[in-house]
Amino acid sequence: MLLLSSALWGFGLESINEIAVFPYLSPQKLVQLYKPLAQDLELKLGHPVRVVSAPNYTKFMERLAQHRYVLVINASHMARMAQLDEEYQPILRPLTDLKAVVVVPRNSALMDTAELRNAVVGVPSRIAQITQIAKAMMREEGLEPGTDITFVHHPTHSSAVMAVANGKAQAAVISSRAMDQLRDRVGDRLRILSDSDNLTGALPGKAPPVIYQVSPLLDIQAREQLVQIITRFTNNTKAGQAFINQFGYRGLRHLEPGEMEAMTPFLPALRAQLVESGK
Amino acid sequence: MNSLYLPYTLKISALLLLVESLLVGTLLYIGIANHEQFLHDDIKRESDTLATLLDISLAPSVMTQDMAQAQLQMEQILRKERLNYLLLEDDRGRVLASSGIISTAPLPEADRIPSLWLADGSYDFIAPIQLEGVLYGRIHVGMGLKRYQDLMEQWLSHSLLAAAVILLISLGLFLLFGQIFRRPLRNLTEASRRLADGHLGVRVVKKSQDEIGQLTDAFNSMSMRIEQQMGELRMRERRIDEERAFLQRVIDGVNDPIMVIDLDYHVLLENIAAKNHHGVVQGEKLCFRLTHKRDTPCNSLDHPCPVEQLKATLNPQLVIHEHKDQMGQSQLFEVMASPMLDASGNLTGIIESHRDITDRQKMQLAILDKDARIQHLVNHDQLTGLANRTLFNDRLEHALKSIERNDDMVSVVMFDLDRFKTFNESLGLSNGDRLLKQVAERLLGAMRGSDSVARIGSDEFAILLDRLKDLEGVMAALRKLSDIFLKPVIFNNEEYVFTVSTGVAVAPMDSRFALDLINCAEIALHQAKEQESGGQVRFYTSEMNRQINQQLQIESSLRNAVERREMRLFYQPQITLKDGQLQGFEALLRWQHPEKKLIGPDQFIHIAERTGYIIAIGRWVLKEACKQLNLWQQAGSPKLRMAVNLSTRQFRDASLVEMVGSVLQETGINPADLELEITESMIMENVDAAIAIMDELNRLGVRFSIDDFGTGYSSLSYLKRFPISTLKIDRTFIHDIVHDQNDSIISTAIISLGHNMGMRVIAEGVEDEEQAGILRQSGCDEAQGFLYGRPVDAKDINLDDGAYPQNGAVILTGSE
Question: In this complex, is the C-beta atom of A27 within 8 Å of any C-beta atom belonging to chain B?
Fold first, then answer.
């Protein structure tokens, strides 16, 4: 029905009054981080724009399925799923990639990931892309999570790292960006053991940290205007640079062909985890 | 019940209770206000906390649009915070979730401020739901106020209860303390009452050292003092009673009535004699009723009131009162009134002592009569009854003392009868005595009342002339003396004429001492007696002697001057200034003395006035002048008029009008041609009398002119009332009229005045043509003076020589 109406009439820019961000951080934090973009859109569009989210990834994806969001900032694997399932169109991605790093205490004797057998390793939530990459990394080293190694899921990347710093885990797998942000706090106590750059399996070792996508209901002209507005802000304005650099993205750009398709290997596990979480 | 009769302690208790009630009420009010404010603040604080809580709790749910979570949180908060309801709406007002709302009714309006006493018992407010300042929705909150109201009511009830308890306890304490405090006060009150009832020995037991104790001490001291003073007072009263009884006994022992009277005439005290004198009248205390049986106080019309006299003088007074005794018999009382003064010296009454002097008065009158007779015998000549030398000396001394205080003179005129010795020897002593008696009678009849006549020797008499202003008084006395002896004395049908020799001394010129002055008079008398011819008068001072004798001589000569045809009339013409025509003459009197030359009126008229000879002389003048006028008129000058001067004595003479009338009739002239000249002083002396006389003469047709006008003091307002036809400007103004501007102004003013009053104006004393020119220029009608002719005898006037145009010529010949 929505699609039908979209085909007939399409949504314009006036329909963009929310920025729906996938719930990878607390609502307060999400509002705080994305507020500059919302304010710029308010200014450019001439009506209020606010940041919204969902209680969890499942709900987030359900709402995408319901086409409740027009402008969405999504994790790249979830964005691929929305693209495939709900026709949400990816429009922009950061200039940088996301990769996983294995972090151990600085004085740890571990020199190779393979030495983590039987170790307790802190990882983000099960649905996180990093967690899937972490599993792939461990499997490449011959370590089967749950058998050779124990994954302890943490609500955030930082809590996983803090568990290592506090001695509650021997290692943690987190995003490289998260490590960069935590370096000041724990850099003297931790060191990176390895990263996902050289991952060779189906899963890519790195991925866009987020994907900016829009509802298929948004007409093409509005979509283009929106892309221009966002990129002009993030890439050409001081406030936009400050906004985008707080994530370490350095800027946004259009997606290259195949970039979204590269995320497809994450989908089975994602779907399974979403089903699991939705129960 | 009147509050005045309430016990003092009850009043104090009530007052304290009232004050305490006000205080408690005020505190209660402040407490309520504070508590209410506190609860208001509490509500506000809680609502703010609640808003924050809801914001923090619900913002993530709203942001993530997790309504289930929001609903859950709202229900938890609703329960926990005991809220009435919660309603969450998004930023566009769409309801997202609600809790506690079961009605479909719209939510109550949000209250603007939290208040404890909101009508619906709920504080309704709306709180924003926001993240990082971004509004995500609003929450409507209904916060129940009941627990606050319950708290307030609970606090209020506790406070009121506490206040009531405090007040009740206070009331009880006040009443209790009031009872405790009243007890000593009641004792003091009772003791005071007993003290007032005369129980002077009453005392109160002191039970404390506080103010009540001090009051008790003071009361006991007071009652003790009163008891002591009352004792002293009774003692004094007894003493006073004794003294009063003693005083009463003392004054009762006095035979004369004694009364003590206050300033309102009330008799305060009297003795038995007084009571016996006026009789006892029950209840009557007024002195004038008791003593005089009259209803008003005495007054000066009958006899003076001692009370009033003492009020006026404060000095003891002696008055004579006539009282009627109980039988109605008139008695004469000598009332001695003395002042009764208080300690400050103020008059409070009088003390009267009465003495019946009825008999004594009679006796004294008899004695006085006898004394007077003795005194008369001592001081008077038994034969003539005149004062004797002793009395004369006394009177002279007294008179001399009086002239020391003023400029008067006193004269002693001493005379004796010439040839009295011969008379005595020829007719016997008894006739001599008779002669002396007759002389005395004549003297008493002739002399002034103030003059004292004495017989100081056998035929020697003395007259004391007192308060003389000048020698004229002496002259008058000598004249009277002369007149006395002009009448002959008749003895045995034969007439005897006596003359007296007189000696005169005058004080203070001759002496200021009585005996010296009498000696001077005796010396002068002796000198007079030395003259061979009797009837001589001698003054002690030679110059005075000369003056007096000259005057006496003139008087003597003047007496029959008219009969001797020694009087002559001169006439001075009066000329019209405008054209020089003769209008008439003024008759001027001269005396051709047989031994002297022609004497002017200034030398004898005053003597003629004084002696009264002026009446005869005046009549002669008027008649002569009128006769002469008639002659001139008959001779061909019919319009001439004649001016004749009247003297003061003539003007006052009662027969003046009659005399003028008879002269006019005798001479047959037209009265209108006669102008009588009088002076200002003559008419101003008695204006009404002058007007009457002048009116009468005016009715005859006679006209009047005012002579010497300008020198007297005429009242212009009176002047117009007189029938005056002519004003004569005094010669003194004319004399310097050429050189003295004032005289010129006065003359002009008189001329103007006369004309304005319809009078003719004549200038006197015109001596030259320059004067005449000024007067003419001033409009003066006529003139008189040497310029036109000196006064001359009628025989020297010829009206036919053509010198004057009117009525023929006048030739003025001769000179004075």
Answer: yes
Which residue, among B771, B748, B770, B774, has the nearest Cα to B761 in the 3D structure? B748
> Cα(B141)–Cα(B447) distance, rounded to whole angstroms?
146
Task: Please name the residue of chain A whose CA is at the shortest distance from the CA of residue B67.
Answer: A55
Chain-chain contact of B134 with A54 (C-beta, under 8 angstroms): no
* B813 band by pLDDT with thresholds 50, 70 and 90: very low
The whole-angstrom distance between B130's CA and the closest CA on chain A is 10
Tens-place pLDDT, residues B715-733: 676 777 889 999 999 888 8
Structure tokens at B130: 């926001």
Q: Is A51 on the interface with B (CB under 8 A)?
A: yes
CB B278 within 8 A of CB B354: no
DSSP string, B81-123: HTEEEEEEEETTS-EEEEES----SPPPPPPSS--TT-TTSEE
Burial of A139 (0-12, 13-18, 19+ CB in 10 A): middle
CA distances from B40 to B121, B123, B141, B152, B604 (A): 13, 11, 17, 11, 137
Instruction: Give the pLDDT mean for B441-462.
Output: 85
Q: How far apart are CA B226 and CA B243, in angstroms?
A: 24
Dihedral angle sign, alpha carbons of residues B89, B94, B98, B101? positive
CA distance to B379, B409, B447, B495, B551, per residue, from B504 (Å)? 23, 13, 16, 29, 15
Distance of alpha carbon B506 from alpha carbon B512, whole angstroms: 9
Minimum-distance CB partner of B63 among A53, A59, A63: A53
Residue B136 to residue A30, Cβ atoms within 8 A: no
Nearest to B471 by CA among B518, B509, B520, B499: B509
Strands A18-21 and A171-175: unpaired
With an 8 Å Cβ cutoff, are B132 and A31 in contact?
Answer: yes
B414 φ, ψ to 5°? Answer: -115, 130
Nearest neighbour of A31 by CB, restricted to B61, B91, B134? B134
B59 touches chain A (CB under 8 A): yes
Question: Which pairs from B717-724 meet CB under 8 Å and 24+ separation?
Answer: B718/B683, B718/B684, B718/B687, B719/B757, B720/B757, B721/B687, B721/B691, B722/B683, B722/B690, B722/B691, B722/B694, B723/B694, B723/B695, B723/B698, B724/B694, B724/B757, B724/B759
Contact B134 A35 (CB under 8 A): yes
Q: DSSP 3-state assignment of B500?
A: strand
Of A23, A28, A54, the CB nearest to B131: A28
Interface of A with B in 63-92 (CB under 8 A): 63
In angstroms, what separates the C-alpha of B94 from chain A's closest C-alpha?
A: 16
Listed by number, the residues of chain B in 116-155 with a beta carbon closer than 8 Å to a beta carbon of chain A are 131-132, 134, 136
Residue B340 sits at φ, ψ, to 5 deg, of: -105, 115
pLDDT of A117 higher than 60: yes
Nearest to A26 among B60, B65, B69 (CB): B60
Q: For residue B65, what is the nearest residue in chain A, using CA coordinates?
A: A54
Asked if A62 is an interface residue toward chain B (Cβ–Cβ < 8 A), one would say: no
CA closest to B136 among chain A residues: A50
CA dist B588 and B593 (Å) reads 16
Cis omega (within 30 of 0) for bond into A209? no
Q: State pTM to two decimals.
A: 0.45
Dist. CA A18–CA A24, nearest whole Å: 17
End-to-end CA distance of chain B: 124
Tell me if B527 sits within 8 A of B542, measured CB to CB: no
Tokens of B136: 């995500």
Flag if A26 and B136 touch (Cβ within 8 Å).
no
Task: Give the model confidence (pLDDT) of B623-640 as tens digits.
Answer: 999 999 999 988 888 889
